[in-house]
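Give me C-alpha cells for this 332-residue protein.
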Amino acid sequence: MTGQAIDAVGIGNAIVDVLSQADDAFLDAQGLPKGAMTLIDAARAEELYAAMGAGIEMSGGSAANTMAGLASLGGQGAFIGKVRNDQLGGIFRHDIRANGLVFETPAATQGLPTARCLIFVTPDAQRTMNTFLGASIDLGPEDLDAEIIAGAKITYLEGYLWDAPPAKAAFVKAAQIAHEAGRRVALTLSDPFCVERHRDSFLELVEAHVDILFANETEICALYQAAGFDAALQQVRGHCEVAVLTRGDKGAVICAGEEIHVVDAQAVTRVVDTTGAGDLYAAGFLYGYTRGRSLFDCGQIGAIAAAEVISHFGARPEADLAALVEKRLGRT
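Here you go.
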C-alpha cells in the first residue's frame, strides 16, 4: 500500500529482459520466428541464454516498461507483478523501484523462478522475443493491492498476462475495483499471436471491462478478424470509450465515439531497436490522459516517447522524456 497519488498502475508479467544483438542467420539457426514473441520453457530459456552474445539485463515486461516511461515523463506509476525470491527477482525489484515506481507485490518463496525474456535485436531494428514466464504466471487476485488500484486514475492491463487463468481472474477483479472507485481501465493487446490465442475472451474483456484499448494495426485486425485497418477501426469504435491504434511509421489513429484523430509519427534519425515502442507510446498517452490533455495531445506525447525508445538499444527511455515533450510541444 502507499500514500502516494498514483496516475496509473500497471498489472503484467514481471520479467527481467536480456537484450543481445543477433543477425538473421542466428535466428534461422535457432528456428526463431523473426519479430515475434515466442513462449518457451525453462530448458529452452537456458539453451538460448547460453547461445546468445553479450547482453544487457534490466527489469522489463510490457506494462512495467509503460510505467517506467510514465515515470520518466513526470508521472507517478505503480506496478503489480509476481517475481520469485531469487537473484533475477531481486534485480527486477531493485530496478523498477529505481525508476521511481511503487512495487510492493510480495515475492514467491516457492515454485518457478523469476521470468525472463531473451530478446534478439537484428540490424534492421526488429526484435525477436523468447519469453519464459516463470513465476509471473502465478499472479492471482490475492496479489492485487486494492488500495493502489482504487487510488490510481487508470489501471493498465497487459495482454501478455492473459494466458494464465489466475491472471484472468486478477484482471477482472482489478477492473471491478477500479470501476467501483470511479476510475478507468486500459488494456494493451500486446501481440497478434496473443490475440489469436484468446480472441473470444479478449472481446468479452474489452466489451465488459475496458475503457481505453491500445493495439497496433496487426493486433486490432486480428481481434476483429478484419480484412484491413479501416474495417477494424469501424468495429472497435463502439466497443470501448477510447481506442489508441498505432501503425508504426504511419503514426496512430485515436478514436472516441465520433471523435477521430490521426497523429503522425515523430521523425527518428535512425531506428536502432523497436523493442518497447508500443509500451512507450502507451506511457506517453496515459501521461497526457491523466493530466486532462486532448486526445490529439496524448497521441503526440505517445509518439515522442516511442520515437525516443526506438532510437537506442533497450525498451526503457534513456533521455528525459519530460524535457523532450517540453521541447517539442512547448509544454508538459
